[in-house]
Design a protein that fits this description.
The protein is 53% helix and 0% strand. It has 107 residues and is mainly alpha-helical. The protein has one domain (11-20, 30-94). The longest helix has 27 residues, at 41-67. The radius of gyration is 19 Å and the shape is elongated.
Length: 107
């Protein structure tokens, strides 16, 4: 006699799948700092930050298109799933936003 084993995933694991299974461009797929002299670390860092911001923006757009949720909303949901129950103020602290930026929206 064998037991039927059903694997249930938590909301956190499901959300992590959303984050890790997306097609975010890899560093080697984006433009590099070819035209910046190697000793200009300040410009290289700024270009790298720009590439990171662009990748985050693309990822957030894909999340919005596929799951109807933005990157910041996903981060807030992950905080709630990991530390529930939370007040709006506590959510803001976990995701490093001011409480005035975080709001409750009921549908």
């Amino acid at each position: 006699m064998t037991a039927d084993k059903t694997v249930q995933t938590s909301p956190v694991l499901q959300a992590e799948e959303v984050v890790t299974n997306s097609n975010v461009p890899k560093a080697e797929e984006t433009s590099s700092c070819k035209n910046v002299p190697e000793f200009r670390y300040d410009l290289r860092v700024l270009q790298a930050l720009r590439q990171i911001i662009r990748a985050v923006d693309l990822h957030s757009r894909k999340l919005l298109g596929k799951y109807k949720i933005t990157g910041p909303q996903l981060i807030a949901l992950l905080a709630i799933a990991e530390h529930q129950p939370l007040t709006v103020k506590a959510i803001a602290e976990y995701i490093h936003l001011s409480p005035s930026t975080t709001s409750v929206r009921l549908f």
